[in-house]
Design goal:
The chain is built from 20 helices and 2 strands. By secondary structure, the protein is an all-alpha fold. Among the domains are: 71 residues, lambda repressor-like DNA-binding domains (434 Repressor (Amino-terminal Domain), Orthogonal Bundle); 120 residues, no CATH class; 73 residues, no CATH class. It has a two-stranded antiparallel ribbon with strand order 1-2. Strand 1 and strand 2 form a beta hairpin. The longest helix has 22 residues.
Length: 395
C-alpha cells in the first residue's frame, strides 16, 4: 500500500506505524515517542491537531522525516529556516561559549553519532533544532578538556560542525555554510588526524561549488589528495577515494574532461578495494562511485549525458546507501533524462528522490528548475506537475 498522498496527519502516522519494521502498535508508538496513548489515538482518528513538538517526537519514534507526516510540507521548510539564526548565534560564540553543563564523553559521542545519522538521511529539521545547544556544549568540553582526550573532543566538534553545515548548505544559507566550513578547518587542527583533514577538504568543496570557482576547487582537492595518507588501511583508502570522487565532479563542472575521467578512474579503483560504508562521515565504496559516475556525466553534459542514462538502465542505488546520496542520484538522473527528452522518466526520478529524502529534494535548486521546466513542457499533466512544482518552490 502506497503512503497516503493527501489527508490528515493522523492517517499518515497510522500508515507509517503500520509499515514500520517491526510494525508498531499505538501503545508502542506512544511509548517510543513519550506521548500519551490517548493522544496518539485521537491524532490518528483526526480528533485533535498536532503541535510541532509532538509531530517531531512521533516522527523520531517512527524513524521518518517529519515532512512525510504533514500535507503542508512548506511548514517544515519554514521551521528549518527559522532555526538557522540559532546556528549562527552558536558559532559566533565558538571560542567563548556560555557556562553550562557538559555530559560525559560517551553521551556526547552518542549525540554526535545521532546528528550524523540525521545528516546522512537529510533530516535537516532535527539537525537545526538540536545543533546549537550541542555545538555550545562541545565548545565548552573542548575548552576544559586537557591531555589525550582533547583530540577526540576536537574530532567531535568537527563532526558536529559538518552536520550543521549540511543543513545550512542544503537550505541555501551559503554564508553560514562557509563559516561552518572554516570552523571545521580550525577545529581539525586540534584533532591532529590527517584522515579527518581529508574529510574536511571534501566538505570544503561546497564553498567552491557555491562560488562556481571550479578550477580553484579542483586545485584544492588535488592538494588534499597529495596530503592524504597512502591508501594502505581501509579508512585511508576511503578518504583518498572520496577526494577523487569529489575531484571528478568538480572537474566535470569545470569542463575538464580528462581530469574528470582520471579522478573517476582512481575513485573506481579505490572503491573496489573497500566495502561500501561510511568512513569518517563520508559514504564511499563501489556504489558511491557509481552514483558519482552519473554526477560526472551530468556535470560534463552534452555527449556525456547518454552515459548517465546507460548507467541508470543497468543499476540503481541500493537501499543501504545513505538517503542523501540515493536521492542525489535520482536528482542528477532526472536532469539527464530531461536533457535527453525523457520527460516522464525525469518526473518519476524527481518523485523517487522526494520519497527517499524529502527535505534534501525540496531544497535542491536543480529540482526547482527541472520541475518548472517539466511543468512548462508537459501541460497535459499540469495538475500533478503543478502540485510538485509548488511543493518544491522556495519559501
Amino acid at each position: 500500500m502506497p503512503p497516503p498522498q493527501s489527508g490528515s496527519v493522523g492517517r499518515r502516522i497510522a500508515y507509517y506505524r503500520s509499515v514500520a519494521r517491526p510494525k508498531l502498535t499505538q501503545q508502542q508508538l506512544a511509548d517510543r515517542a513519550s506521548v500519551a496513548l490517548g493522544t496518539i489515538r485521537k491524532i490518528e482518528r483526526g480528533e485533535r491537531g498536532v503541535t510541532d513538538g509532538t509531530l517531531d517526537a512521533i516522527a523520531g519514534a517512527l524513524g521518518v522525516d517529519p515532512s512525510l507526516l504533514v500535507a503542508d510540507r512548506e511548514h517544515v521548510s519554514t521551521r528549518i529556516r527559522e532555526a538557522l539564526p540559532g546556528l549562527s548565534a552558536a558559532i559566533a560564540a565558538y571560542d567563548v561559549p556560555e557556562d553550562g553543563p557538559v555530559r560525559p564523553l560517551s553521551e556526547l559521542r552518542s549525540a554526535v553519532a545521532g546528528a550524523t545519522a540525521w545528516r546522512l538521511s537529510s533530516r535537516y529539521l532535527q539537525i537545526v533544532r538540536t545543533m546549537p545547544d550541542l555545538l555550545a556544549e562541545l565548545a565548552r568540553a573542548a575548552q576544559i578538556q586537557q591531555g589525550v582526550g582533547r583530540a577526540e573532543f576536537a574530532t567531535l566538534l568537527v563532526t558536529a560542525y559538518r552536520c550543521a553545515d549540511s543543513a545550512a548548505y542544503k537550505c541555501g544559507a551559503r554564508d553560514l555554510s562557509a563559516r561552518l566550513v572554516e570552523l571545521m578547518r580550525w577545529a581539525s587542527h586540534g584533532a591532529e588526524d590527517p584522515l579527518l583533514s581529508a574529510a574536511v577538504s571534501y566538505v570544503r568543496t561546497e564553498t567552491f561549488f557555491a562560488a562556481r570557482a571550479h578550477i580553484s576547487g579542483l586545485r584544492a582537492l588535488e592538494q588534499a589528495i597529495d596530503a592524504c595518507p597512502g591508501p594502505v588501511s581501509t579508512e585511508a583508502i576511503a578518504a583518498r577515494g572520496a577526494l577523487h570522487m569529489r575531484a571528478a565532479v568538480i572537474a566535470g563542472r569545470a569542463g575538464r574532461t580528462d581530469a574528470a575521467d582520471a579522478h573517476l578512474t582512481e575513485a573506481r579503483t579505490l572503491g573496489d578495494r573497500v566495502p561500501e560504508g561510511v568512513y569518517r562521515g563520508t559514504a564511499f565504496g563501489p556504489d558511491s562511485v557509481r552514483v558519482h559516475e552519473v554526477s560526472v556525466a551530468v556535470s560534463l553534459g552534452d555527449d556525456h549525458v547518454q552515459h548517465a542514462l546507460d548507467v541508470a538502465r543497468e543499476w540503481k542505488p541500493p537501499p543501504g546507501l545513505p538517503a542523501e546520496r540515493r536521492s542525489g542520484f535520482y536528482i542528477e538522473l532526472a536532469r539527464a533524462q530531461l536533457w535527453g527528452g525523457l520527460m516522464d522518466d525525469s518526473f518519476e526520478s524527481l518523485k523517487a528522490a522526494r520519497r527517499i529524502a524529502p527535505q534534501h529534494t525540496r531544497e535542491h535548486p536543480w529540482v526547482r528548475e527541472d520541475a518548472a521546466t517539466l511543468r512548462r513542457l508537459k501541460r497535459a499533466d499540469s495538475e500533478t506537475l503543478t502540485n510538485f512544482a509548488e511543493w518544491c518552490h522556495p519559501a
